[in-house]
């Protein structure tokens, strides 16, 4: 992998995480104000937040859609920087999501069952690869 591709992977990964955190703030704020958990200790607040999120299908779907969009965005940014092997570079840009999710699972901080983690684990690289593919198609169309 070239230096430019490595930079793309790093920047795309950071873009993915930063965007997911920024776009997740309104969802978290809504749940926190709706449940009134702001004065509770962090562990209780997180448990209630996750319970409400998982019990509310529209909020959960919105959260998943946000996660998916951010993975695509990270892959797109990585591919745009790399300008070669766009799909592969896009897929590798999901490294931050995969590592953070695995770390949360190992430390017991994820709030989701292991089967759910294993089902969704391939999702981030696949969606990030889609972002790389979109960039590849866009650049080829503009070149033609």
Question: In words, what does this structure look like?
Answer:
- This protein is an all-alpha fold and 144 residues long.
- The chain has one domain (3-139).
- The protein contains seven helices and no strands.
- The chain has helices at 3-35, 42-55, 57-82, 86-92, 95-106, 114-120, 123-143.
- Helix 3 packs across helix 4 (86-92) and helix 4 (86-92) runs antiparallel to helix 7 (123-143).
Task: List key phrases describing it.
single chain; 144 residues; mainly alpha; 7 helices; 83% helix; 0% strand
Q: Number of helical segments?
A: 7
What series of H and E elements makes up the topology? HHHHHHH
User: Which oligomerization state do the chains in this entry correspond to?
Assistant: single chain
Shape field: elongated
Query: What is Rg?
Result: 17 Å
Query: Proportion of β residues?
Result: under 5%
| Poorly predicted ranges | none
* Distance from first to last alpha carbon: 26 Å
Structural class: mainly alpha
